[in-house]
Amino acid sequence: MPDTVAAKLGPDKTLLLVDDDESFVRRLARAMEKRGFDVQTAETVADGRAMAMARPPAYAVVDLRLGDGNGLDVVEAIRERRDDSRVVVLTGYGAIATAVAAVKIGATDYLSKPADANDITAALLTEGEDLPPPPENPMSADRVRWEHIHRIYEQCDRNVSETARRLNMHRRTLQRILAKRSPR
Length: 184
What we know:
By secondary structure, the protein is of the alpha/beta class. It contains nine helices and seven strands.
């Protein structure tokens, strides 16, 4: 795959990786450098914004939840300085509502962890209307339900009573669902 990546990369190969998982960032940076990217890394929103403002990257991979805030702030900073940048939002807390928010502010794609360097590279380099290949492990019906409930919860500004009313569900049942981890 690295040979085909080099062919798709343009003259600007800058890639900004923003994630607070230090070991993940190091591994991903090495893998992306092998694919021909010129990699910069940051572990906080503040550092990511500063790097984006100083040297707007052609490509970026940004974690949604960082120790000092929301990765979407970094995406906005990149978009302010460079509207042709290809940005992939990466998170371990995949929810449809956050994916929609990420795409609305300019992210090219949204991937849930664990995503490997091949998945990330494919998302960064997919052009135009091309759809990425279907996932190897699509969401289960339970996961789709969980995603829908969380989307409505986010749209109701995290108001449990209002969300329960809109979903025609008992408030305590909803609280139990929200307290659990997402199904696979």
